[in-house]
Amino acid sequence: MSEKAEELLERYAQVAGSEIIHQMQALAGRLRGAHIVHVNSTAYGGGVAEILHSMVPLMQALGLEVSWEVIEGPPEFFEVTKSFHHALQGHRVSLTEEHFQIYEENNRREAERLEKKLREADFVIIHDPQPAYLIKYVSQRKGYWIWRCHIDLSRPFYPVWRFLEKVVVSYQASIFSIPEFSQPLPHPQFVIPPSIDPFSEKNRELSPEEIFEVYRELGLDASQPMVVQISRFDPFKDPLGVIRAAELAQKFVSFQMVLAGGGAADDPEGDRVYQEVVQAARGKPNIYVFKLPPTAHRTVNALQRAADLVIQKSLREGFGLTVTEAMWKGKPVIGGATGGIRVQVVNHHTGFLVNTPEGAALRIRYLLFYESKRREMGHKAREFVRQNFLITRHVRDYLALMLSVCMGSPDRLELEAGEACAWPFGGLGAPLL
Amino acid sequence: MAEKNFQHPGPFVVKDCVLVSVSTGEKAYTLAELAEKLKHIEPACIYHHFWARHLRPSFDHPEFHNDFAAWVHQDLRDRILAERLNLITPHEYSSIEDLREALILHLQERIFEDEHLGWRKAENPFYFVKSQLIIFDTGIRLTWPQEIAEILEILSPGSVFYHFIDARRRHPQGLDDFREWLRKFPPEFRPLYDLISRIDPFFLSLYEIKDFLIRHIQIFCARLHAVRKQYERESGRAS
């Protein structure tokens, strides 16, 4: 193992514990020699890109051959995939045959560009719907193809799901963040929650000066309590509901409500929603709306650390990594009772689950009033993340899944010790598909 | 001391495991549907909903000790059945099939008591998930019981789960791996065996089980050491 890899694993061991590093090493040892390729649709912005920025180097440090490919496409392709995103999360959208053709044609072109890498890989992990159709256009596939769905697929708009399902059935396995998102599919559907990286720019420890700097940078008042919602400007994140909740709570307690978020290359709708939110906040002196560049990780980090509490009042949510980030920083979270937020926010322990702006307003008042409760919940929240939602656990689960898939997904898989069972398990690779 | 004719049972092989959750795609909205699906669902599913909470995100002391009781309380809102299901202690049953039978019996009894309840629609469905256990050898071997406490300090929750919880399903007498190994040692280790028997894994998190084992093995070892010293002193005086 190189010195750099050893150093990286040692750093993670200090935060997540050496036990999980040993588990990762034991599993990775069986996969050494396998080539793993991740594919998604954006290099910056959004939870998937953030995860991959951490996951790929960590897998490499474990001695695995891992690469990450990003599909490209014209703006109209991303307009279509944004509609897909909404549809899969349950919104009725209006799509014509031409839209489906734009999507499929772009996947065909990208498959052509990436064909050699994808065909030769032992494991191809396709993230989300944008590149899902690549599988259709890569023939003679050598490895296992796994579809990783990061979004809430519990009640998809059927015409779009039907279109996607046609190719998802060709994968050897799929991964969902929680069981509620799984669908009737003819292959194993693994349940793996996502994670955060404690050393990324968005989550690393900051000095008090760095935290204080954010007040100056954004023109906020350091002497006033602050409630923050960090998210893309997306109707599913209910930014207008957050403004309503803040207005209701501000009748009783004075605080600054900050809505801040970045865009992403694959999110063309962000600007329109941002304008709506700015309009709704106009004339309300203690409500601040900031559009941040997708790379403003340190600003987000500082805002979350400076906040007294964090809100994530989503109406639909794949998982809600901003919730995990806030909890890691020891903040209680008021979260919409939906999707993965329900797994993280344990009512009265790590925060509160709410369904309406009124519910959120009441919890804001409560938490701003009881400082001791904020501290207690914040402490529990950080420990909860340490044990369950760090990148180390996420990588370990992926490695376990890969071993499970190529062993036929048995209920119990006992790995023998020693090199004899290293990849490709004595010549038993995946069949050509 | 009875060590003269003692034949060492061989080393304790320390293993670790990772639990992977797999959604079956099956769900139930009503009690009647839950009872019906339980008749056919894979054993790995029943295992998951009773035991996997130890290895997945949850709080140390949840109000409900299995997923069925939690769902009946939170989503079906039947407190009576939730309390009854909460008392089901899986390691009391010799097999998953016996556990399945007991579970179905509770549901059917409740449906019989209140016929409307069988068809009441829950707020959220019950999702059937199964567990896949990936087990691997850590390469660590223990020779004497005293070493258990030392090694526990560095063991993962997965190891504790495998040797202390999963073991109960593997051994015909429902023992954990530590006791299975200890029972082959001389009688002076019997008190340690009895101490471990007192741990009820149903109410403890893996971290608490680990702490309990470390603390009690350390106390036992200190006592054993004192008894041995005294025995040596007395043997010396006698000779």
How would you portray this structure in words?
The complex is a heterodimer of chains A (433) and B (239). Chain A is α/β, with parallel strands linked by helices and 433 residues long. Chain A has two domains: 3-195 and 390-411, 3-Layer(aba) Sandwich (Rossmann fold), CATH 3.40.50; 208-388, Rossmann fold. Helices cover 46% and strands 15% of the residues of chain A. Chain A contains 16 helices and 13 strands. In chain A, the strands form two sheets. Chain A has a six-stranded parallel beta sheet, sandwiched between helices. A six-stranded parallel beta sheet of chain A has the order 9-8-7-10-11-12, with helices on both faces. In chain A, helix 1 crosses helix 2 and helix 2 (18-31) runs parallel beside helix 16 (391-406). The longest helix of chain A has 24 residues, at 97-120. Chain B has 239 residues and is α+β, with helices and mostly antiparallel strands. Chain B folds into two domains: 18-130, no CATH class; 139-238, no CATH class. Chain B has a two-stranded antiparallel sheet. In chain B, helix 1 (31-40) runs antiparallel to helix 5 (96-113) and helix 9 packs antiparallel against helix 10. The longest helix of chain B is centred in the C-terminal third of the chain and has 33 residues, at 206-238. Chain B is elongated. Classes of the chains: A alpha/beta (433), B alpha+beta (239). The interface between A and B is large, with 44 and 32 residues.
